[in-house]
């Protein structure tokens, strides 16, 4: 049985439905990210799990128990927010001890647990500091320790890294993942940063306008996006219009060039327009050994980005970007030059709207 289940969860604020039939099961110990643009409903789903918002429909269970009659403080959930939200007038020790004190735990037990938690986040030496005496990254680690101190059954993280600078964000996300795995705690992480979600999750839910567009492992989400929205939100991607030539042989046409897809086209009719996705890193001008498909077009522009030269070419009205790896002796293609882009047929994916 799954640990956390959301079945047909809905939420409306007045006449506006911001979460629509949200379904998801999360296993014990899993790290799941809700990824999506601002306003898609990620935080609202998280707040319903925490009990801060009441669903207008659907069922939510944790460890088999319906949560609808339980208040936030009865759900045994730990939460970390974007803003550090520490108690400013309390030391690090007292912040981490807070939940245990409220629960009436004896002092020796509290002190031992605080010591353990500060060891976990490697801040034992700052126990007597106040929040204003610490960096944003340190404060967020204390917020994590405070959330974990009460041994919650689920940890909810609402954009906990977005107020931090880029370098700290990367190191802290690795630390969060390592602590999560060490404790085996079921975790839901909200973010609008696709790299963050891809790097730390067991599974990702890509949310679009109040519903889950796709749920899958980071590899599935990145390599086989199910919808146009997922394809464009997760990474840079070429969207290419094509026409079905023969559904039986998976033959399609891009501009005036025919290509045979690896994926089945059987669900479409001859003459139908379909959308295809191709990642910039999938194609190459020179690596003919790994290729089984090619498109010829005219170079529109070539930008040197350091390790790669991002090149745009026009193929029958579709502008396709691809990355050429830079090495000594590489000559960037010139605008107007005719080039042939080679890739694997399996890299060209049909996506639905
Ligand atoms: P962000 O990344 O910007 O926080 P999000 O995906 O987490 O976005 P939510 O905060 O869940 O989005 O908000 C979803 C929608 O619900 C938004 O349009 C928001 O304006 C609306 N909303 C959220 N809370 C309320 C509320 N209490 N009353 C009315 N509308 C709300």
Description:
The chain is an alpha+beta fold and 353 residues long. It has 8 helices and 19 strands. Helix 2 runs parallel beside helix 4. It is elongated, with a radius of gyration of 25 Å. The structure holds adenosine-5'-triphosphate (ATP). Adenosine-5'-triphosphate binds next to helix 1.
Q: SSE layout and pairings?
A:
Layout: E1 4-13, E2 16-26, E3 31-35, H1 42-50, E4 57-62, E5 65-66, E6 77-80, H2 92-102, H3 107-120, H4 136-149, E7 154-158, H5 166-183, E8 186-191, H6 194-200, E9 203-208, E10 211-216, H7 218-223, H8 228-233, E11 238-246, E12 251-254, E13 257-260, E14 273-278, E15 293-304, E16 308-315, E17 318-325, E18 338-343, E19 349-351
Parallel strand pairs: 3-8, 3-9, 6-7, 7-8
Antiparallel strand pairs: 1-2, 1-4, 4-5, 9-10, 11-12, 11-14, 12-13, 14-19, 15-16, 15-18, 16-17
Helix pairs in contact: 2-3, 2-4, 3-4
Subcellular location: Cell inner membrane
Family: Belongs to the ABC transporter superfamily.
GO molecular function: ABC-type transporter activity; ATP binding; ATP hydrolysis activity
List keywords for this structure.
Spermidine/putrescine transport system ATP-binding protein; P-loop_NTPase; Mo/tungstate-bd_C_term_dom; 8 helices; alpha+beta; binds adenosine-5'-triphosphate; elongated; ATP hydrolysis activity; five-stranded antiparallel β-sheet
């Amino acid at each position: 049985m799954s640990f956390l289940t959301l079945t047909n969860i809905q939420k409306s604020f007045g006449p506006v439905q911001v979460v629509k039939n949200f379904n998801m099961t999360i296993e014990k110990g899993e790290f799941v990210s809700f990824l999506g643009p601002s306003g898609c409903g990620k935080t609202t789903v998280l707040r319903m799990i925490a009990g801060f918002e009441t669903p207008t429909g659907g069922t939510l269970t944790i460890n088999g128990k319906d949560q609808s009659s339980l208040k936030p403080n009865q759900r045994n959930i730990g939460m970390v927010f974007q803003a550090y939200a520490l108690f400013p007038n309390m030391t690090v020790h007292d912040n981490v001890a807070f939940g245990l004190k409220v629960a009436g735990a004896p002092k020796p037990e509290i002190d031992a647990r605080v010591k353990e938690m500060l060891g976990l986040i490697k801040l034992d030496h700052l126990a007597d500091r106040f929040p204003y005496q610490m960096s944003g990254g340190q404060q967020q680690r204390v917020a994590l320790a405070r959330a974990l101190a009460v041994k919650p059954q689920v940890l909810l993280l609402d954009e906990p890294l977005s107020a931090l600078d880029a370098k700290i964000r990367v190191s802290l996300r690795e630390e969060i993942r390592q602590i999560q795995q060490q404790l085996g705690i079921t975790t839901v992480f909200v973010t609008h940063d696709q790299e963050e979600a891809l790097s730390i999750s067991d599974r990702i839910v890509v949310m679009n306008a109040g519903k889950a567009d796709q749920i899958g492992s980071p590899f599935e989400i990145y390599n086989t996006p199910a919808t146009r929205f997922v394809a464009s939100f997760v990474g840079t991607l070429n969207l290419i219009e094509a026409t079905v030539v023969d559904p039986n042989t998976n033959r399609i046409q891009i501009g005036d060039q025919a290509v045979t897809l690896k994926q089945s086209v059987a669900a479409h009719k001859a003459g139908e327009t379909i959308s295809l996705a191709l990642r910039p890193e999938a194609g190459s001008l020179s690596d003919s050994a790994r290729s089984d498909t090619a498109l010829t077009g005219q170079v529109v522009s070539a930008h040197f980005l350091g390790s790669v030269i991002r090149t745009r070419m026009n193929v029958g009205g579709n502008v396709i970007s691809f990355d050429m790896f830079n090495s000594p002796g590489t000559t960037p293609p010139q605008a107007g030059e005719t080039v042939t882009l080679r890739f694997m047929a399996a890299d060209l994916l049909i996506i639905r709207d």
